[in-house]
Amino acid sequence: MRILYVIILSMSFALLDSEVLAQSYSEAFKDGGTYYKHARFEEAIAKFNEALKYNNRSDKAWFYLAMSFKRNNQPKQAAIAFEKLRGVNPNYNPAFYFEGGEVFIEINSLSRAKRYFETFLERYPDKPKNTMKRHEAKNRLEYVVSSAIIRKQPNTTSDPVQVAQLNSTANDYAPQVNPVGTRLYFTSVRQGGFDNVQDSSRANHYGEDIYVSNLLDNSWSPPIMLPEPINSINDDFGSAFTGDGQTMVYVRCGGDESVGNCDLYITTLDGTRWSEPVNMGNVVNSEDWESQPTISSDGTRIIFTSSRDGGYGGADLYMTEINHLGDWGIPQNLGGIINTPLSDNSPFLAADGKTLYYATSGHPGYGGADIFYSVFENGKWSRPINLGAPINSSGEDKNFSISGSGKAYFSSSRNSDSYNIYETELPDYLKPKPTAVIAGIVSNANSGAPLGALVLIEDIDTGELIAINKSNSESGEYLVVLPAGRNYSVSASKDGYFFYSQSFDLPKDTTYQEITKDINLEPIEKGTKVVLNNIFFESGRAELKPISYVELNKAAELLQNNGSMVIEVGGHTDNLGSEEANLRLSQSRANAVVDYLKLAGIEETRLQAKGYGESTPIADNSTNEGRKANRRTEFVIVEF
After folding, report:
1. What CA–CA distance (Å, rounded) separates 144 from 128?
2. Contact 175, 424 (CB under 8 A)
3. Is the bond preceding 390 in cis, omega lying within 30 degrees of 0?
4. Is the pLDDT of residue 396 over 80?
5. Where are the beta strands (DSSP E) in 395-434?
6. 3-state DSSP: the chain helix, strand, coil percent, rounded to 5?
7. 454: closest CA among 500, 522, 505?
């Protein structure tokens, strides 16, 4: 009997211990769940570990411990916990294989990640409501398979170098270099700006502000923060500029007129001051997050990042264009070639208007976000190509920007938890299509005073107006970017002045070039004489070439806008051939120009034609260039 009593008593204690353990496990697991729900992952980790001390076979505790480690940016510990879960119950909810696969990507265990995603796709039901998640898993499986191949490829360039003059102990990112590589804007959260510490959840984060630095004697100058109204007490970041640097698009969060939590704003430079930034409104901005814009050199297109509904997952890239009314149109998603189920961001449209650089973690790469490029040709984007190592690393690499000559800048977290700005030189095959940069000063031909003028870029073959730029109202400086593969007319005009045009032929096989061209505008007054550079005739004949029509239409418009102007059209030749033949040819060519202007609606009484032959050269006829300059059409204002 005594032995039976001892056995019964022992069983009672064991049952009691079991109940106590179960209660302790339940309380610890419940507390862990509460902390997890409120994103207090450190406390959640402690509680789930405590629960596992009471029951180390709990698949739920292992799952939530793994997820807590993952959410707390502890991927190695998360990977161990997921493997423990797989050992305890490999048939637990298949979602853990997806979550675990992401963790193994993060710690560069691609073979293990591959097995996890394959298992997920085998076990996750192929039902309509699961299609999106299965798409994402297929993307991740493709990522791990192709990334293993990409990471074995040779380096594409030398090691990028930190730009010490720009970087601080805080986060520095979003560099934007101008086409000639002499000015760089970037964003920083360093102390000393419009500090707004209370709005940040991160240490060493004083609010986002935009800074600028200039390249002086091959060294970047100390950064200067842009003044109000660009920077404010709100977060201001991600600046992008047209080729001439006089239109800026950037991001402001929490403004008084916000459509969403972060919106795109636009501003223009008048002299040395930026205009009051204008929210781009609810056609471009949504109630979600808009950020990281890039604007084409000609100012007609903006590509930006948005988390709005209807995308491919995460953040996507969208494009808005100026419509026929001069308004920014409804943004269009760039599509599934560019965008992925993960986050796609920080676009940069190169000066050629066709080559797009951007960052994504959705295409195969080296870990984190990598920088890719794609080219828009034949109406579609090409398959994105990874820029390779060492530009891309296991960290976050993004915010790529490149000058016309090929010097590139980007931001990376490769060496620390903070972002720094790096510079590198791309090999030719990764560079944008070649461009020419035409820059100079527009001024009054008589006084030399700088002028703010309209600068038009047109296709001289088709007459298509490609872009409207302007010279700075105080300095007279202008800059236009011309992609290779077209023939251009670049003209400057201002009320009260005779227009000036110059043609630039840029075949597809041209190389990058910088051309300095100062423009002197002649005031409209009696006696003013100007050369029309873009009037061309068939060789030895008086028939106008069609490429002359762009210039002649400008002349007709000038006469229509100045009803009292009477002009003489003067024809001039070089000294090849007889004087009599040259005189006849010059007169016939002057007559052809007058006839065109008459057809354009200009009264015959306001037009005079005179041929001068070879009698008034303006250059040396002994050289090809000199003879070309002497073969010209001049306008002289006879009455005004």
Report:
1. 25
2. no
3. yes
4. yes
5. 397-402, 407-412, 420-425
6. 30, 30, 40
7. 500
The two three-digit tokens of residue 368, written as one number: 């984190």
Contacts of 614-622 with CB under 8 Å at 24 or more apart are 614/572, 614/573, 614/574, 614/575, 614/579, 614/582, 614/583, 615/579, 615/583, 616/572, 617/572, 617/574, 617/575, 618/531, 621/574, 621/575, 621/576
SS3 assignment, position 478: strand
Q: How confident is the model at residue 283 (pLDDT cuts 50, 70, 90)?
A: very high
Residue 168 CB-density burial (10 A; 0-12 exposed, 13-18 middle, 19+ buried): middle
Q: Residue 21's pLDDT band (boundaries 50, 70, 90)?
A: low
Which tokens hold the place of 518?
């100062």
| 22 backbone dihedrals φ, ψ, rounded to 5° | -65, -40
Determine the straight-line distance between the first and last CA of the chain, rounded to whole angstroms.
134
Q: Which two tokens stand for residue 530?
A: 């100007």
- Which of helix, strand or coil describes residue 554? helix
Joined together, the tokens standing for residue 295 give: 């604007």
Report d(CA 247, CA 348) in Å as an integer.
Answer: 16
Distances (CA, A) of 512 to 77, 170, 180, 243, 484: 51, 36, 10, 15, 9
Q: What is the mean pLDDT of residues 143-154?
A: 95
Average pLDDT over residues 230-242: 94
- Coil, strand or helix: which one is 237? strand
Tell me: the pLDDT tens digits for 509-559? 889 999 999 999 999 999 999 999 999 998 889 999 999 999 999 999 999
Closest CA to 143 of 116, 105, 112: 105
Q: Please state, in angstroms and rounded to a whole number, the distance separating the CA atoms of residues 626 and 637.
A: 25
CB atoms within 10 A of CB 566: 17
d(CA 185, CA 192): 17
pLDDT confidence tier of residue 20, bands split at 50, 70 and 90: low
Give the per-residue pLDDT at 13. 42
Token couple for 303:
């590509």
Contact criterion met (CB below 8 Å) for 628 and 620: no
Please give the Cα distance from 640 to 267 (Å, whole number). Answer: 39
Tokens of 382: 């090409």
In whole angstroms, give the CA distance from residue 461 to residue 425: 35
Q: What is the 3-state secondary structure (H, E, C) of 247-270?
A: EEEEEEECCCCCCCCEEEEEEEEE
State the Cα–Cα distance between residues 469 and 478, nearest whole angstrom.
8
Label residue 235 by pLDDT band (50, 70, 90).
very high
Cα–Cα distances (Å) from 76 to 86, 106, 107, in that order, read 16, 9, 7
Contacts for 21 with CB less than 8 Å, ≥ 6 apart:
54, 55
**For residue 464, how many other CB atoms are within 10 A of its CB?**
11
Q: How many helices (H) and strands (E) does the chain have?
A: 11, 35
Residues 332, 334, 339, 344, CA torsion sign = negative
Using one digit for the tens of pLDDT, what is the confidence trace for 337-374?
A: 999 999 999 999 999 999 999 999 999 999 899 999 99
Distances, alpha carbon 44 to alpha carbons 29, 54, 102, in Å: 9, 16, 21
- Model pLDDT for residues 472-484, shown as the tens digit of each residue: 999 999 999 999 9
CA atoms of 19 and 9, how far apart (whole Å):
15
The pLDDT assigned to 467 comes to 86
pTM of the model: 0.88
